[in-house]
Structures are given as C-alpha cells and as structure tokens.
Amino acid sequence: NAGVMQNPRHLVRRRGQEARLRCSPMKGHSHVYWYRQLPEEGLKFMVYLQKENIIDESGMPKERFSAEFPKEGPSILRIQQVVRGDSAAYFCASSPSPDTQYFGPGTRLTVL
Amino acid sequence: GQQLNQSPQSMFIQEGEDVSMNCTSSSIFNTWLWYKQDPGEGPVLLIALYKAGELTSNGRLTAQFGITRKDSFLNISASIPSDVGIYFCAGRMDAGGTSYGKLTFGQGTILTVHP
Prior knowledge:
Number of helices of chain B: 0
Strand content of chain A: over 45%
Number of strands of chain A: 11
Largest sheet of chain B: 6 strands, mixed
Largest sheet of chain A: 7 strands, mixed
Number of helices of chain A: 0
Radius of gyration of chain B: 14 Å
Strand content of chain B: over 45%
Oligomer: heterodimer
Shape of chain A: globular
Helix content of chain B: under 10%
Shape of chain B: globular
Distance between the termini of chain A: 37 Å
C-alpha cells in the first residue's frame, strides 16, 4: 500500500506566479490535512478536507490560498500570486478517519 | 491560539546515552503524539497517547501522557546514530466539531548522536 504522495517535491516560482501543490492520500483515506513548515519550526495546520468538502480552514490565509479535494483525483493546495514569505515546506497528511495522520514527504516551495 | 512549548530545542549526546524531551501546553489535549522527521522528509509517527496518565513504549521509546492533559514527555533509551533527527510533539483536541483531527505541533527537538 503506497504511502501519501506529494508532487512536486520541489517547486520554484517567481513572485506573482501561481503554485499548485498536489497530494494523493493513501488508498482508502478520505481525510486530508495540509500543514506548512517554515525553516526550523514545527508544522502549522492550514486546512482539513474530506472528499469535496472543506471541514476546517482556520489555519489558511484568507487571501491567495485555496484548497480542494475533489471526488476524483488528488487534493490541491493552490497559492496565487506567490510572495517570498510563502517559501516553506508544505506537507499533506491523510487518514481513514479523523485519527492517526500519515504524512507525505512534502513539497518544498521556493519563491524567488 | 493553542501553543505547545517543546524542550530542549536541541541535544548533543553520545551513543548509548538516554534522552528525554518534553512538551507543555497552555490548553488541554485529548491526544498526544510524538513524531520524528528526517531531513527532507515528512514526519513519521512514533507513539500515540490517548489517555491521561498513559505510559506507552515502542522499542527503545517511551512516552507518557501527563495527568493534567497539558504535557507529555518522550524518552529514548540507549541512543544509536540513526536516532538523529528532529522530534516533534503534537496535540489533538478530538473535541468534535471542525477542530476534530487538527494537530498542533511543538517547535521540535533536534537530536544529534555522536558515535
């Protein structure tokens, strides 16, 4: 059973461009979480989704950030008009229920 | 918002020594988790604690869920070089509603083991 997959592993964008981060949860997992990690810090919760629904987006900035988890396909975290402060590692986790979360390897976003 | 204070920030130890790190919170959590993160990878779950006062072991790792539900500690016995990494505590409310499942992480403890 493959683990949580994230792609790309590394993403470089210039200021003002859009970044799209993808997360494929483990098979049978319908709960997806996105976290952001700044250098030398812990992970910070951004958003919690179930299939086609956003359950909790209390950690996600109101502007420029959006997330979806469609009925078919991976979950997408989208950052519009990126700024240097968006540079971070973004981790996705999945679970079969709101219980133990299994993390993916992350996407390292660098904004030039 | 909820905050977890994890200490120490870093540790430098000799192989074979025991290690202890802890986490305290200003809020009550119903679940405490300990993760290890290697460079360039995502966190991997080490131990999960679900009940106040619970003491759980996983090989050389032992973790406890504090009675007040506001703290937890992790011990690693007889450390080996592959224990090197960043250890994170995380708390979860499990209170239902929209916060269900959301994890709050500590700042991490960087462990270095000298052979």
